[in-house]
Amino acid sequence: MPISTATMFPRFALAGMVLLLSACAVGPDYQRPEAPVGEHFREKVRSTAWKQAEPADLKDRGPWWESFNDGVLNTLMQSLNEQNFSLQQAQARVRQAQATLSNTRSTLFPKVDSSVGTTRRGGGSGDTSQSSSAYDASITVNWEVDLWGRIRRQVEAGDAGLQASAADMAATRLSLQSQLAQTYLQYRSVESSERVLDETVAAYERSLQINQNRLDAGFSAPGDVAAALSQLENARTQRLALNREKASYQHAMAVLVGRAPSQFEVVPHAPWPVAPDIPVGLPSSLLERRPDVARAERRMAQANAQIGVAKAAWFPSLSLKASGGFSSSDLSEWLTAPARVWSLGPAFALTLLDFGARRAQVEQAKASYDEQLAAYRQTVLDALKEVEDALSERNGLELEQASQARSLAAARESLRLTRNQFDAGLVDFLSLAQTQATALSAERQALALESQRLRAAVKLMVALGGGWDAQTGLTSEEVTKAGMKKTDGAESVADASGPAAE
């Protein structure tokens, strides 16, 4: 039977209205807010390589630790990136966020279900009891039309959540790398202090023997021998304390690279790493580089999308359902025309009275956004503070190290002169002991400052987001692939580090 124009017009009008409404989404569209970023850092920097911030989403970050030119550190970092369990947890959270987003996005499309079944029914009693069988097969299509953009806002929130999880993984990785680098540098500092104290203990043993020989010959007092012995035992105690400190650093590195402390060794007596010269850009570049800032900004976008989800609850929802199949009491007639059944129809649903529940949900979503906005701005301020602190520490340590170098040179010269005077009998042992103690203190302080300066360089790199040739935020590939790489077993750090250390 032909369909009249009067019948067709309402159908086309309804279809056009559905398409028009499905193009809109309630709630505010996200706009990145201003952050409290200054024009320059307060602390002075030596480098003149200042630049305006530019988008760097697709640049490769690269291994920032390689700038220290230390093969052992490079191998340790590789093991951390492959075997650290905290990092693997962050990678798993990224995969969870990816799966959640895929699940949310699937609700934009119709859902198709199928069923096949048989039912046996009966009734009556005695001779009048009857039974029959029914055979059913059907396919059902359900689709919630996203008239007001509720599902699209959920997808938008899920996408921002995925990027936030990936940024969180990047922040976790950067923090772990910083811990490993600083622990490794402290380990090397202790090793250097061990060598100094070993030489000191040997010198103190010679001094004790000289004083004992002089006492036996009647040229020295018993007090000099006692002072020499006390000085020697004090140095030995300091040397034993270094063993304990060194072991704690080694255990910490073992855990960071995913190894049991009993199965972990570091290549001994490797050369000191080289402190890199780090150019520092304008503060606005922090918004491109730091993963924690990217994470805070994505959480804010996620909260903004949730406002639209909450507002969509005020509007009616439209669901379209269609089903078709076969139903018959006789299996032989199952696929014949009389056994065919179908249904088709829309359904509108609207909450009429909820005593303020929807209004409360909207206010909750707005308050959550305000919270994330404040958290984002606070994260930016904290990032700027970390850079300022790292710059101040680096600049201050460079000045301290220069001053300490002059002090160490003077202490060594004073020790040389005093030892010559003691050997010539011009000064007593107490004068020599005081000079030796001053020289040892200067040696250890110089080593400590060198270690602090290298660790300050690590802190500055991390505060800048990891390296300086590119950002440590998210690339487009990382958003979709973050956390997907499976972890393979890695070779022993001790075995792998040997050739690099040489």
Summarize the structure.
With 502 residues, the protein is an alpha+beta fold. Helices cover 60% and strands 10% of the residues. It contains eleven helices and four strands; from the N terminus they run H-H-H-E-E-H-H-H-H-E-E-H-H-H-H.
Can you characterise this structure?
A 4-stranded antiparallel sheet has the order 1-2-3-4, with no helix packed on it. Helix 3 runs antiparallel to helix 4, helix 4 runs antiparallel to helix 7 and helix 8 (357-423) packs antiparallel against helix 9 (429-463). It has helices at 5-22, 71-83, 85-106, 150-217, 222-256, 286-289, 291-312, 357-423, 429-463, 476-481, 493-501, and strands spanning 111-123, 130-145, 317-328, 340-349. It is α+β, with helices and mostly antiparallel strands.
